[in-house]
Each structure stands twice: as structure tokens, then as C-alpha cells.
Amino acid sequence: MAYGLKHLGIFKQEDGQVLSKMIVYITLPATIVNGVNGTKLTTLFLILAGIGLASNGIMILFAYFYGLKEKERNFRGLLLFTTGGYNIGNFAIPFVMAFFPSSIPYLGMFDMGNSFMVAGGTSAITDRLLASKEDAPSFLDIIKKLSKSPTFMIYIVMFTLPIIGIRIADDWMAPFKLLASANSFLSMFMIGLYMKINLHREGMRNVRKLLFGRYAMATVLAILIYLFLPLSHMIKSVLVLIMFAPISNLTVIQATEFGADEGVSGLASSLSIILSLVIMSAVVILVL
């Protein structure tokens, strides 16, 4: 819809920048509060959150070496941002729940680790890996950057509350639920505004390389999880499906802020939704 409205002249690609700020500062924090409020920290929670962190880290490390021969720094940054990071809330949860209705706690646990990365961790790592020796951010610079990420700080607060025994009352959750309900629509609309079908040859080549690398490494991780993790069949099945989830909307925003081509990142994100739908459906039918 957004792509069509843009071509009708009702919206411009630059309007996506306004939407991205609304998402980062308003609807996504509200979504986090709504989804995390009252979460109890258990051993399984920490394990799955750790897997969320580790899988992101492995994907980012792979993307770094995968893009070593690329001369353009902005595209290398795009590879790091969009190879790691999983779209859990807007895609994986509704898809996986259709086959495993009781899986949402496990999805949420994984997403805690995943979200720490997409909320600021990936951005900090990308700055560190792609900066020159003179400009490489220090550990203090990374902490400062993370502290300026509203989503990252919201997670810190929401993880701290259950530790000290505080849960936000249901009466106070109404505005958060209202704002959270708009997050999926705004995220998809923003990607539609950024999407370009008529990219130049180099842009299309970059989209192909990005998506091939992401899904090839996702396949490797999915196989390792399914064969070697000592968890129940259902939890492993959920994790396998998550590995093929689309690119996170938040990493698309961060990639464009980094300087990556908006058309490439928008098209790659949109195509990843279609690819993930096909691959995840095939995995359910043929494997799980």
C-alpha cells in the first residue's frame, strides 16, 4: 500500500524518516512494555535469551567476513545490520503460533536476547568493526550510544522491574497497548516507502548478495540447533523457524541512519518477508 501511495504522489520516500522516528521513540517502546511487563526470569528464559544474543552475534560475525571484499563501507554496514536481527513481533510470533499455539513464551524469551542486539547492540558492533583504528569507538562510546537508544533502555528498565518485584498494573497498560497496536502497521508502511523496485544493477546485486548470505547462514544455524541443542522438540522447532524469520524492521532503520542505500535496504526487507514465508512454510511441511 505504501509503495503504491508513494507512486501516486501522496507520500514521499523521505516521509519514511518521520515514521522511523515515530516507531523508535513511540510505538516500539510501547510494544516492548506491553510484551515484557510481568515477565519472570527463569533458567530457560536466560538460555533462550542467550541463544537470541548468540545467534545475532554469529550472523553479524559471518556478515563481517562475508563482506570483506566489498569496497563500499555503507554496503558492508548494511550487511552487518540486516544479516543479524530477526523480525519476531510482526512476523515470527503470528506465524509460529499458527503451528505451535503454546510457543509464545519461548518466542518472547528468544526475542529478549534478539532485541538487545537490534535495539542498539548491532549498531554499536557495526561502528566498532567498520571504523578506522583512529575512529574506532571505545567501550565507553559504545555504552553511551546504547544509553541513547530508547528501545535498549526500555528493555533495561523492563528487565529491572521484575528483579525488584514491580509489575505495571493493568489499568496503566491501556495507553501502551493502544500505541503498540500501531507498531506493525507503521513498520510495514515505512518499509513500503523505502522500497524501490527499479534499482540500478549494483543495487540489485547487493540485494541478492545480502539475502543469499542471510538465508545461507540461517540454514547452517537451523541445522545445528535441530541436531545438537539438548532442548525439547517443540522448543527446537520454534528456534529453527525463528532462524528463517525476516529482517528486523529496526535494523532497517539503523542501516539507513548509518548511511546505507534506503532502496536496497527497503527492497531486501520486503523480499525477506516473502522468502521467510515460503521457507518457514516449507520447513513446517517437510521437516517439523
Molecular structure report:
With 288 residues, this protein is mainly alpha-helical. Helix content is 77%, strand content 0%. Helix 4 packs antiparallel against helix 6 and helix 6 runs parallel beside helix 13 (249-258). The longest helix has 28 residues, at 201-228. It starts with a helix and ends with a helix. The mean pLDDT is 83.
Radius of gyration: 18 Å
Q: Tell me what portion of residues adopts beta-strand conformation.
A: under 5%
Average pLDDT value?
Answer: 83
Order of helices and strands: HHHHHHHHHHHHHH
Number of helices: 14
- Which structural class do you get from the secondary structure elements? mainly alpha
Choose one word for the global shape: globular
Question: What is the end-to-end distance?
Answer: 34 Å
Number of strands: 0
Low-confidence stretches: none
Largest sheet: none
Give the fraction of residues assigned to helices. Answer: over 70%
In quaternary terms, these chains amount to single chain
